[in-house]
Write a structure and sequence with these properties.
five-stranded antiparallel beta sheet, about 15% helix, elongated
Length: about 425
């Protein structure tokens, strides 16, 4: 009997413990389920912006009417930078509150969507303020233009090297549809040697971006002239000269750290053979308002020097005459030892409009050898019908008919005084 009573008591006690365990387990599961369904209500409202960048509550932003999109670009602070203090803001001013949970960047990887979730607008950017200015040199081409060439130059004093960068050519006018251009570069007065660019296939706007080096002493540098000849190759592999650029170095400031991009319009090379005594090229212009006659002495070619050496210097004297009476004269700088000197010098003379029918200009090419007498190489006179005929008269009349414009021409030299 006692053994049976112990067994019954043990069974009852075990049953009670079993039901207690089931109750505790059920209670814990219920608590866990309730926690899963519960949520924490945030006290801070979500901040959004309208089109003007003003900050407002999310509950009210949904009822704002849609407006036309602004042309300006919003400037947005990403969440990774929003822990900083942004002050002194103008136009939609907003200062960060460190207590705002939406301003604190979250750690760990973030998707592109989440990376903008906490961003806010602080202002706008006007794209018009950040546009590069247009390069007018590639747009303004005068009537009759046959092409334009861009290059840059610099001079290394230590190594005595002239560095020439051939950049590009635009708006070429070839004789045929197919054109593969290239450029030859000379350093005058040496016309026997040259450097040549690569040939660019089938283009009227070649981009070269090539560098060339000429060895020249600093003492002789300013007496040299760069000459660019632009050719094109046709389908039959024939070379056609399209134009040239002549660029004297004497007026340039050439240093290691002074690299300036230069452009020049192509000129047609004078294909006429030189005259017996050579030719001279110059421009004439008359300003009727100021009563000023301007002469630009450009260059000469094919001169018959008495002695070809560096001791020989050649210059041009420009004289204004009226009724064959001498009024005034000016002369260019001397160029040493070249039968094809380049000058590019400008001279002005006072001349009333009523005097243009009786005035004339005389250009004399003179050679001097150290310790010897000056020798006349050739001369040309331009003026009205009273003194000239042919090309010289045409040049004078064209100058009068085109006031304030530079009229450029080649003229043959003669040896008569």
């Amino acid at each position: 009997m006692p053994e049976q009573a112990v067994a019954v008591a043990g069974g009852i006690l075990g049953g009670i413990l079993f039901f207690v365990l089931i109750g505790i387990t059920a209670y814990l599961l219920w608590r866990k389920f309730c926690c899963f369904l519960s949520y924490e209500k945030f006290t801070s409202p979500v901040i959004t912006t309208n089109k003007n960048g003003l900050f407002q509550d999310q509950s009210t932003s949904e009822i704002q009417p849609k407006t036309t999109r602004s042309r300006s670009i919003p400037f947005i602070i990403p969440p990774t930078l929003q822990e900083r203090d942004w002050i002194n803001l103008t136009n939609e001013e907003h200062i960060q509150d460190d207590r705002d949970p939406y301003m604190i960047p979250q750690s760990g990887p973030r998707s592109s969507f989440h990376s903008l979730a906490g961003a806010y607008v602080v202002g706008t950017i006007n794209p018009e303020l950040y546009k590069f200015p247009e390069d007018r040199s590639e747009m303004d081409f005068p009537e009759g233009n046959i092409g334009r060439l861009w290059f840059s130059i610099e001079y290394e004093q230590e190594s005595e090297r002239l560095l020439v960068s051939l950049i590009k050519v635009r708006k070429l006018q070839p004789p045929a549809d197919s054109c593969s251009p290239f450029v030859k570069i000379y350093l005058l007065p040496d016309e026997r040697s040259y450097l040549q660019s690569k040939t660019k296939r089938k283009t009227l706007n070649p981009q070269f971006d090539e560098n060339f080096v000429f060895q020249v002493s600093s003492r002789m540098l300013l007496q040299r002239t760069l000459k660019f000849l632009v050719y094109c190759v046709d389908k039959q592999k024939k070379h056609h000269l399209l134009g040239q650029v002549i660029f004297p170095l004497k007026n340039e400031t050439l240093t290691d750290d002074n690299k300036v991009v230069i452009w020049r319009d192509l000129e047609k090379e004078n294909l006429e053979p030189p005259s017996e005594y050579g030719n001279v090229q110059f421009s004439l212009s008359y300003n009727d308002y100021l009563g000023r006659l301007t002469v630009v002495v450009l260059r000469a070619r094919g001169l018959k020097l008495q002695e070809e050496s560096h001791a020989v210097s050649v210059y041009i004297k420009v004289s204004l005459m009226n009724h064959n009476k001498f009024i005034k004269s000016k002369k260019t700088a001397a160029v040493l030892g070249s039968p094809n000197p380049v000058y590019n010098e400008t001279f002005s003379f006072k001349a009333d409009q009523t005097e243009l029918d009786t005035a004339s200009l005389s250009l004399s090419v003179l050679q001097t050898i150290k310790g010897e007498k000056t020798h006349l190489l050739g001369r040309v006179v331009v003026g009205p019908f009273m003194y000239t005929r042919g090309k010289e008269l045409e040049h004078w009349n064209e100058m009068i008919s085109k006031p304030k414009e530079l009229v450029k021409r080649w003229h043959a030299l003669c040896h008569s005084m």
